[in-house]
Design goal:
alpha/beta; four-stranded parallel sheet; 4 strands
């Protein structure tokens, strides 16, 4: 079964329509208590590498190159296969992230990657 994949900032209130909630950040979101975040899985191993994350944050103008590098990392990710298997058990998945830029963040890239791989 191919799930519907939503994206949401971790600072937004959870909703029943979120389905299976996966935090996709390598670092814990600032200002949030771990007990206050409703999540089903923390998939920090599929987030961009620390090196790639820092490189992108220095210059968000590198969006296109960031996407290419992150896809390459995902292609080589062992934990991604386990995540994809888990995702097929659910009708709705919400990937949530802490970045403030809603148009240029790794969760968007990850969703695009997963939708292609799961189809």
């Amino acid at each position: 079964m191919k799930p519907k994949i939503n994206i949401k900032r971790v600072y937004e209130d959870p909703a029943n329509a979120d389905g299976f909630r996966i935090l996709v950040d390598r670092l814990w979101p600032r200002g949030l208590n771990k007990g206050a975040v409703r999540m089903d899985l923390w998939a920090k191993d599929i987030a961009p590498s620390t090196r790639l994350r820092k490189w992108f944050h220095q210059d968000p103008g590198n969006w296109k190159k960031f996407r290419e590098h992150y896809w390459s990392e995902l292609d080589q990710s062992g934990p991604l296969a386990d995540l994809a298997k888990e995702m097929t058990k659910h009708k709705i998945i919400t990937l949530f992230y802490a970045a403030s830029d809603e148009e240029h963040n790794h969760a968007l890239v990850l969703r695009e990657y997963l939708e292609k791989k799961l189809s």
